[in-house]
Structures are given as C-alpha cells and as structure tokens.
Amino acid sequence: MGKKKKGKGYGRIVAVVLLAMIFAFAGFAAAEQDWLPGYGDKNGRLGKDGQSWRIGFINTLCMEGPTSDGNETCLSASDPSGTNRLTLPDESGELLSTGGGGITSLPLADTQIWIGGSDGLADPQLVTGDIGITNAGVTTIEAGTDGQMMVYNASDGWAPDTHALTGDVTGTMANTGSLATVVGQVDGTAVAFGSPTDANLQIATDAAGGSWIAAAHTLTGDVTGTMTNTGAVATTVSAIDNVDVDFATKVSGNIQIADGSIWNSFSHTLSGDATGTMGGGGDLAVTVNQVDGTAVDFATVTDGYVQAATDAAGGSWDAVSHTLTGPITGTMANTGVVATSVTANSMGLAETNLSYVTVSIQNGSTSGTATVTSGAFNWAAIPFANVDTEVVNGTSITTTTLTVTLIAAAVVEGHAYAVYRVPVLEP
C-alpha cells in the first residue's frame, strides 16, 4: 500500500471550502433579488425595476442583440492601472465607435462646425461673418469685382475693395495683381519725367510754378561744356576766377605765370646762385655756381679737398687740399682722415727724443732723483718695480736733475728701493 502524497489532502479541503462559499453567495443573492434564468429565447433577467444590482465585477459582458444566434457584441476592458469610471449622459442616442473607418457623421445643423471650448469639450458653432461654409464643405468669401482685394474695416470687418494709389504715385490694380503706376510728383511737387531728351536732367524752376522740369545740363563761365546722353561732360577751361589763362600754348617745361591781368605760359628757369631750366617731364637740372652771391668752386673735385675762402679769387670759396704744417704735419684723405706727424713740441723746441728714465726711491724716503739732459721735458712717473701703495705727488726737472716726489714715505717690504719710470723728451 502506498503512502499518501504530502499536500493532497489539503487541496481537497480547499475545494470543499470554495464550493461552500459559492453556494452561500448564491443563496444570499437569491434572497436579495430575483434570479430568473431564461428558459426560452429572450426570456429571463437579472434584477427588476426598483431592485437592481449595485455593483458587479465582470471581465467581459456579451450581448446577443434582437436575434439570438452565434454573433454577439462584447464589452471588455484593458487592464486598468487604477479605478476608472465611464458615465453615460442622461439622454437617448447612439454610441459611436472608431472601428470600420472611424466616426463618419455627427448630429450638427447646416453650416455648423465643432469648436473646442475652454472646458476641453467641443461645441457646435455656426459659421458667420465674411466667410461662409456649406454642409458640403464648400467655403465662400464675400463677392468682389476685378482687381479688388480684401481690406479690413473696423465697421464691417473684411470686405472686398479696390486697390488704388493716389498722391505722388497713381495707379489701380488689375485682376492679375499687377499695378501700373504713374509718378507725377515727388513730395507733392510736380516732376516732369515725361519728356526724356538726350542728356537732360531734372532741374527745379520757378517758370513752371516751382516744379521740377527736364533741362539740358551745360557749363558756362570759366569752364564750359555740355553733358552727353552718357553722362559725360567734355569741359574747356578758358579762365580761372574770371581771369584768362593761356593753356593753349603748350611748350615743354613751361608753367603758368601771372603776367599783368592774365596767366601766361612761360619757361621755368633758375638764375642767380643756382641755374637751370625745367624740362618737359617737370625735371629741373640745377647747377650751383655761388652761395649767398659768392662764387663757390664745387667743380674742382679732388681727393681730400675742402672749400676754403680765398682773396685770390675775389673773395670766393675755392676747392683746396687740407694740410697741416708746423710742429704737426699731415694731409687729409678723401675719407676725411688726417694722418699727423709731430716733429717738434708746441713750445718751439728743436726735434726731441722720447726716452724713459729710471728713478729709485729708498725705503722710508719720500723722493728720489735721476740725471737728464738739460732742456728735457717730462709729465708723469710710472710705477715700475717694488711699488705697493706709494702714490706719486709730482715730478720736476731742475737743470739736469729729475725729481720724483711721493705723498708719503715709501714702504717696500723685502726690497731696498721702489722703482719708477719717467717718460722724458730730451733735445
């Protein structure tokens, strides 16, 4: 004998409990309302007038229609995400669906359309105003005539009206939309654009009552000429500031120069210190013969020459070489450099020889001497040997004795003397 499977007894208990609950609910419902199941076609009902079910939970509700057959219309709901409610209005009518091509008709009066309202619902409204609509969907606009356009007027809204231009520009629009305009004036003043003549332009004139007229454009006075139909004016200048000008005489290098009461054409020349005549290109080759009325010899161009005043040529400036003579000699080169040579001192002494004389100053002494040629000349003493911080106070020559004097006594460590060399010019 096999063992009972675990859990099988519990399933039977649950089934029994469910059946008991179903029978209890059915008994309760029968006690509350009539339960009259149909025993023939269209015979039977749930509830009755004055006694109805308050609420029923149904997945799908199917209806047969006038004839019981295999075709039914069923109402069902998608899975709701919350508690929804559909309310039928208090009126008789038909429920419309979007199936089978969508909603094809709604009950509306002729020329009415549905207009959305602020409450989110559409209301039927009658189309009124300048634009009409029929129940066939044909729209109409208020009738007009050729060339008219719709113009808004505050009193009667949009209406057809003639489109015309008045004032400075006139014209009326045709039924093609084109507008042939005629400009008769500008800023309220008449303008004669109707007489196009070669080279004419618009000129204000009092002769036509202060209007603009077409007239020839000509130049008179100092400059004359008449404008052509290309806008070009070939001008002729015969005077400037009402003074005659001789532009007809065209000579190479001539310029206009006042001559009495007119401007004449004359050659342009230079005279005086600088001379020259202007050529046809405007160039003027200038030659300088003198400066400030004094002759200058710039023609003699020689290496190293300078301009020097000389009486020999009547107080003129001549080109001469630049040389040095006397104790210092030399001649300037064309670079401006003068190589000099000293042959005697500036005091007029005879030729001298430069030599160096040695003077020794004993340790602890402030001076030392040496013998030189009488008439010798010196200007400094140069430290030569064993000199630490000794500073020279000065040098002097008395007859043949050269003396070097220090500011302080010589201090020479490890040596007996401090030695100086003195440059001397001797005759």
Write the layout of secondary structure elements.
Layout: H1 8-32, E1 35-40, E2 43-46, E3 60-63, E4 73-76, E5 112-116, E6 122-126, E7 131-133, E8 139-141, E9 148-153, E10 157-162, E11 164-165, E12 169-172, E13 182-183, E14 185-186, E15 189-190, E16 200-205, E17 211-216, E18 218-219, E19 223-226, E20 236-237, E21 239-240, E22 243-244, E23 254-259, E24 262-267, E25 269-270, E26 274-277, E27 287-288, E28 290-291, E29 294-295, E30 305-310, E31 316-321, E32 323-324, E33 328-331, E34 341-342, E35 353-362, E36 367-371, E37 377-378, E38 382-385, E39 392-398, E40 401-406, E41 417-426
Antiparallel strand pairs: 1-2, 3-4, 5-6, 7-8, 9-10, 11-12, 12-13, 14-15, 16-17, 18-19, 19-20, 21-22, 23-24, 25-26, 26-27, 28-29, 30-31, 32-33, 33-34, 35-41, 36-40, 37-41, 38-41, 39-40
Explain what the structure shows.
The protein is mainly beta. It has one helix and 41 strands. Strand 39 (392-398) and strand 40 (401-406) form a beta hairpin. Strands 35, 37, 38 and 41 form a four-stranded antiparallel β-sheet that branches. A three-stranded antiparallel β-sheet has the order 11-12-13, with no helix packed on it. Strands 18-19-20 form a three-stranded antiparallel β-sheet, with no helix packed on it. The protein starts with 7 loop residues before the first helix and ends with a strand.
